[in-house]
Amino acid sequence: MVVWTDFERTTIQDIFSKIDYAVVGQAAFSRCLTVYPWTQRYFGQFGNLYNAAAIASNPKVAAHGKVIMEALEKAVKDMDNIKATYAELSALHSEKLQVDPDNFMLLGDCLTIVVASQLGKAFTAEVHAAFQKFLAVVVSSLRKQYY
Amino acid sequence: MFRCIYKTPLFAANAALNLKKKSRGKMSLSAKDKETVKAFWAKVSGRAGDIGSDAVARMLTVYPQTKTYFSHWKDLSPGSAPVRKHGATVMAAVTDAVSKIDDLTGGLLSLSELHAFTLRVDPANFKVLSHNLLVVLSIMFPQDFTPEVHVAMDKFLAAVALALSEKYR
User: Fold this and answer.
1) CATH top-level class for A6-143?
2) Would you say domain B30-165 falls under CATH 3.30.1360.70?
3) How do residues B62-91 score in pLDDT, each as one tens digit?
4) How distant is the Cα of A129 from the closest Cα of chain B, in angstroms?
5) CA A122, CA A3: separation in Å to the nearest integer?
6) Is the sign of the CA dihedral B20, B26, B27, B32 positive or negative?
7) What pTM value is reported for the model?
């Protein structure tokens, strides 16, 4: 049972209310594909991912970035039930998509970096810690249905 | 419903192009990576004090398991004297590593011995500090810390971590 402090709850709600899902989603997901190119293995149908410029201008990458952010919003809207919220998504990632769960935190790290650059000084160490905790809970929930 | 991606023409095309890239060994730094790192570091090292201090402070706050290595400090809070001092130490070492980018293993030998025999830091933590450094860089230099710079810096810090791990066993 995850216990959230008031600060953590407010911080997570606040971050997600401030960011543009299309912008942050595209930036984080394209960074993940660029910085950790082996993650491209799951996106063979996305077209040209050959270099950073191609990834940055790829419309399927942008669209999928937004999908990811919208999925994260589900967790933000019900922070006390993240495991249940992601039960189906976890099974999907495990059984159909067959994503190595170690990849989840690679995307998480890229998202942290993008959110940090958006919020600037407001992304203090305490805010960063709350965000990291949120990501850890999300990743843990996504790992639940793997066997 | 889900096609085998390995058989799609686009996957094959990307794979073929990737194979054409010159092989340099396990994720080692290309000439372009080194140029990118040197240029970016020259730009940012003027703020080394702030960067190092914030990165260490963040590491201690966001990844509290790292505090276990600093139980001898009187004050682990952000902005405290030991945190600032250690931030400066780390940044000086990274700057030194940039100058030795063509032979990190050789150049960081004594630092590796220090971490392996005296400090005995679990090498998994090197990744943690690296990540926090990158977060600080993206906050302080949002325009310059492009995806291209990000991947070069991530590779470089991973190479530094590998060189630091050299003497462990």
Assistant:
1) mainly alpha
2) no
3) 999 899 899 899 999 999 999 999 999 999
4) 4
5) 24
6) negative
7) 0.86
Of A85, A60, A142, A82, give the one whose Cα is nearest residue A108: A142
> Which pLDDT score, from 0 to 100, does residue B4 have?
55
Domain locations in chain A as residue ranges: 6-143
Determine the residue of chain A that is closest to B132 in CA distance: A113
Residue A102 pLDDT = 86
Q: What does the pLDDT average to over A51-76?
A: 97
Q: Which residues of B touch A96 (CB under 8 A)?
A: 2
Please tell me the predicted confidence (pLDDT) of residue B14: 62
Q: Which residues contact B84 (CB under 8 A, 6 or more apart)?
A: B49, B52, B53
Q: Is the pLDDT of residue B129 over 60?
A: yes
CB of B57 less than 8 A from some CB of A: yes
Q: Decide if A40 touches B, using CB distance below 8 A.
A: yes
ipTM value: 0.84
A41 touches chain B (CB under 8 A): yes
